[in-house]
Task: structure prediction
Amino acid sequence: MRGEESEEPGTDPAGGPSRLPEYADRVLDVAELIPAGRVMTYGDVAEWLGAGGPRQVGRAMALYGGAVPWWRVVRSDGALLAGHELRALDRYREEGTPLREAPPGADGHLPRLDMKRARWDGTDADGVAHI
Result:
């Protein structure tokens, strides 16, 4: 449930049920529509909503996103969410999200999302918009 306690990113700041701001509720609705194995950037979500920008979407996800598939709303460069890299990576691997392996000299050897293959445009295979 949205607003309940969670160990995931986006735990409600007060640690319990709360009323979501309307913009945050809309952001979470979009996050819930993103299919397993696909991602949208913070900017993509803002564009679909026709309101706010990447920072506003990121803030909504940080404060309230723990009850939705938070790992599917990402940075445009494909970097994993700082502080939650391993949990996100487990989810990406479970869902078959396309990843690019890190080069051997990379810090921490964490892969990045393969944004060309993983990015979702909000439509299904027939081009029907879901957002």
Summary: Residues 22-33 form the longest helix (12 residues). The chain has five helices and four strands. The radius of gyration is 15 Å.
